[in-house]
Amino acid sequence: MIQNSALETLHNSLSGDVLFDNLHKTLYATDASVYRKIPLAVAFPKNEKDIITLIEFATKNNITLIPRTAGTSLAGQCVGEGIVVDVSKHFTNIISFDEKAKTITLQPGIVRDSLNVYLKQYGLFFGPNTSTSNRCMIGGMVGNNSSGSTSIKYGVTRDKVLSIDAILSDGSKATFNEISSEEFIKKTKENTQEGKIYKAIFDELSLKENQEEIKKEFPKETIHRRCTGYAVDEFLTSDLFGGTSPTINVAKLLSGSEGTLAFSTAITLQLDNVAPKESIMVCSHFTSINESLKATLVSMNHNLYNCELMDKTILDCTKNHPDLAKNRFFLQGDPEAVLMLEVSAATIEQAEIYANNLIADLEKNNFGYHHPKVYGKDIAKVHYLRKAGLGALANIVGDKKAVACIEDTAVALEDLPNYIEEFTQIMAKYQQNAVYYAHAGAGELHLRPILNIKEKEDVVLFRKITTETAELVKKYKGSFSGEHGDGIVRAEFIPLMIGEQNYQLLRRIKKAFDPNNVFNQGKITDAFPMDESLRYEVDREEPIIKTIQDFSESEGILKLAEKCNGSGDCRKPVEAGGTLCPSYRATKDEKDTTRARANTLRDVLTNNTATNKFDSKELKQVLDLCLSCKACATECPSNVDIASLKAEFLYQYQETNGYSFRSKMFANNAKYNKLGSIFPALTNYITNTNFSKKMLGVAVERTVPKLAKQTLSSWLKKHQPKTSKKSVYLFNDEFTNYYDTEIGKDAVILLEKLGYEVKTIAHDESGRSHISKGFLKEAKAISNNNVSIFKDIITDNTPLIGIEPSAILTFRDEYIRLADDKTAAEKIAKNSFTFEEFLSKELEKNNIDTTLFTLDSKTLKVHGHCHQKALTGTHASFQVLNIPKNYTVTIMNTGCCGMAGSFGYEKEHYKVSMQVGEDTLFPKVRNCSEDTEIAAAGTSCRHQIFDGTKRIAKHPITILKEALI
Fold first, then answer.
1. Is 308's pLDDT higher than 80?
2. Which residues is 18 bridged to in the sheet?
3. Nearest 10 degrees: CA dihedral of 33, 37, 40, 43?
4. What is the Cα–Cα distance from 431 to 429, expressed in whole angstroms?
């Protein structure tokens, strides 16, 4: 057994890091598969020397190295008990780019979509396009030989790999690229590890018997997507091994080898010209899966750029998803399957001809009942719906999930309908309704049985279904892995798929490359059992976790955490857009992803033996940098709302370990502001001294928000309200009341000018500060009080309108989980709106007199509050700020501002807070001209914008009030 002292010595010998604390070992014990193995340690090498040192350590101590980039693998490739080597943080550089040759050399930790953002200016792109393309990395794509939706036009990753620089198992370096047959023979004579590799390949594949066995047993050559075992069949095109090609490239063998042969440090790729400018997607609707597959055969005669299938199960998963439901616009009725058929051309006229010909052909063959055409930016929405399907499958409530085991089968296109018919019979035998999620045009179907792998009975089914499906794939001479790789789940079946003789050949190839079994042990050869080391202990006694929030919608807090399937949407970079996940974007540490938080919570709640299962230092550490932005509740297809989980954790943890002075001050800031507002000038002076900041644990660089000279509540007492037939209740939140009184006044004046009677009633604060600091007993009391106050007066005709998004949206979100009277809380929630939402709805009803606003011109840039973006969207802000006819409004894609209430004020979070702002918001604000006005509804956002850019942002309310004639 390796002692921690040896790992500490290893850490000190690297430029990078080796971490072996319980938290990091837990985080790297899983990927996006069903497997879990606790690693010995996690390494973050900074350079090739570090990797060589790791190889030497592994060889000396007889352990394995598990290479990892984004960790989105579905078959367990990144799971192992050795040292996980994460290159996603430091191996992220472009080494060289040749525009003329259309080639690029890069390190393995570059995100696929980020690469294409860089290449766009040159009219080039990297073709293979997985559903995880906005976070998966080139190293992982090469390791899996990834394909994605574009393979029917642009091929698979192996087709694009020209060269790989690798470190071999003895620590030596080698470059594998295309060489002549003569050069290959010369290399076989070299007395080096590289020479031994070439000699082994030559000796094995020169044998006629081996060549014939490969041809006999490997998948059909027409199946382009094949990742079963090592791609030794690629070499049979060489004139050395019975083919006609005068060149050979061992890099093709490394593609799809899952890091089991060598450690790749640089990859050279062949690029393609970007697709034709104009595209149309025909989204054909079908009444059965079988009909859609038969239609695929017809569709593939039409030079398609995409031919993808979604079934009813996946489409149903998107119905109630707040971020996905809006992308269902093209659907008519309730189809059993939809084919996404994309044609492209240089002109829209030509694309129309292609699309119409396709539709005519389908209709002539009586395939499909509806064939809508989707254009422009809407095509991306349909693609996003398909891509999100993988994560959305995790939203099936309960323990039964769509399990990845047979989800990567590929057969020849002409075999597809018959294969599916037989597969359906297998599923029926086991009373399974499989999920069909497919690259139909490539003959690959992501078929998933619905199983509860917490139960032994279903684990037995897990193996049976996988085995019978493997036998069926073999019958059609297909590939058991089309693009997801063998990993743990399929490697066991390689002897069945390619024959025992070929399997032994693969073992000898592995031995030649890696005689000491240093690289990713248990994958492809000498495989781990596919039904062991599962993410959940089989037939365990489910822990009973009591919470103050109501998580019954997910059958409890543990099952909410378990909805995270590891797909890694929270790792998408800034250029991918959206907000998720701001802390990861700032630190680039897996520890700071939503996935890490869900995994740790699941692990702690399951395995912690403490009386209070939430009493965990690891859980506190992993949740520390969560900004509670709620992007995970919408941008992640699994909808795991970490903000709510963090609030519950803080409450439970602090109940055992106590509440800090600073947390009490922040949570109860409304109470203290009430006292401070008696002498606001004195309070503002004191709170902005460095002494006060240090005493409260506030960053001295921050400007503490200043109390207004007059509270909004005192102004409202003196204000004479105007009566009207139309009325609203204004929620005087604690931030507007004490800090942003002028905005509150503007809201009242604006509403009255537009013909609304503004009603107010004595009510409690929103409880937002209590929720964010984990004071949930107090938050629950506040929610109960406010629900009691408003339940009989808030209706469709008299809605509740809020100014600060984070405050009013507690009625729509947290109150549903906290309030005792859930029926009343839900009724209020349906009629509670941000100010912009209310005006937008009234505008759509033609209740807003737009002639009351100026005709002057103005340019506005809008930054949306995180909770606003997650729960309501920013479209309402765009609509209402366009009421003045000559205002030019743009919603900035700015992610999270980084302030997040008290988070950005806390001294230990200040740097991360400012880095989050620098990721997107600050640069875009600085790029705005001086005459451009910045709009931001959130009070924290406005303060962060000022602290980061010295620009003053205004609430949309103020902008509209100033626009009144």
1. yes
2. 43
3. 0
4. 6
